[in-house]
Amino acid sequence: MRKLKIGITCYPSIGGSGVIATELGKMLAEKGHEIHFITSSQPFRLNKMYPSITFHQVEVNSYSVFQYAPYDIALANKMAEVIIDEQLDVLHVHYAMPHAVCAILAKDMAKSDIGIVTTLHGTDITVLGDDSSLSGAIRYGIEKSDIVTAVSHSLVSQTMELIQPDQEIETIYNFVDEQEYYKKDPGNLKELLGIAAHEKVVIHVSNFRKVKRVQDIVKSFELIRKELPAKLLLVGDGPEKHPVMEYVRGTSIEQDVLFLGKQENLSELYTISDLMLLLSQKESFGLVLLEAMACEVPCIATNVGGIPEVITHGENGYLVELGDTQKVAEYGVQLLQDPILHKQMIETSLMFIEERFSSKKIVEQYEAMYERVAKK
Ligand code: GMT
């Protein structure tokens, strides 16, 4: 396979789409491709020197005449510069809004025949696609891209339904970085967090948006806690954190819920965990489920969006209907009290990751796709 010059744009801060874009760039670079990140700040997982990765920062200036600083135009301008200066073969943008439209504009500005690939991640369709002030631009970005991918079949269907683009959309699943996510030696982390050795650990990781239904996590944990000694780790930050803290205050589980805020070394936290909960209302994939499973933590998640493509009920985890906290607790207690079942779920989870979501397989799918659209 020939070595390509690939531009990547994503939201560089914490979030699944930024994680996938950055990990993909790192793995492509390891395979000999030249990678150019075009983002507003250094992607957070790009935390060391990689010789074949360059970071091009989008600078957005604010002038008094602007009511809003024009990030989208500055991004398109930077993309056009990098397309020309670095002779890019492919520009791969993650998250449709506004990246796909910026890429199309940049291609035109650079008078280039560069291949444009757009990957849809979830809320760019399921939330923004429902907003009439944006849906036309999302459709335009999708239709003008050379190839569009989505992270699950469910997201493909939802895009077709909501946006109705005249464009084919392919599924390329997310993957897990096996070099980062595996069961590590936790040292005395459990003790440092004030968790007794005999206590089970339940974990939830999200951006604490309404769609994540963090209250359902706490309610499920309340029921689990009635049956066995346990702690709940709530990892992440966002608008729902305060209401959830208020809910927990004064309840019998107040001492058992640990709000850890945003954390980068998630694999260490997964390593001390026995159960992962993701009870979202919308979820195109649920990358945190893969990350938890790779660290040998079985998952219970809602039967929504792309989650059933990641979890097969009763095999590598359990699926519950939205809001059914009773069922979450039932499955949770079962898993936490039955070491044989717990081990079986972990073994199946690791097998599923290897078969469907290994970084090697997924990166190869992206490479094959780049080859189809790269400048000849
Ligand atoms: O979950 C979020 O709100 C963040 C969002 C993002 O853009 O990072 O996540 C979406 O993309 C992830 C990576 O493909 C998926 O694993 C998440 O399921 C998806 N979130 C939603 O669909 C709500």
TrEMBL record:
Pfam families: Glyco_transf_4, Glycos_transf_1. Residues 193-348 form the Glycosyl transferase family domain. InterPro entries: Glyco_trans_1, Glyco_trans_4-like_N, Glycosyltransferase_grp1, Thiol_BshA. One of its GO terms (molecular function) is glycosyltransferase activity. GO terms for biological process: bacillithiol biosynthetic process. Gene3D superfamilies: Glycogen Phosphorylase B. Residues 14-179 form the Glycosyltransferase subfamily 4-like N-terminal domain. This is N-acetyl-alpha-D-glucosaminyl L-malate synthase BshA. It comes from Psychrobacillus soli.
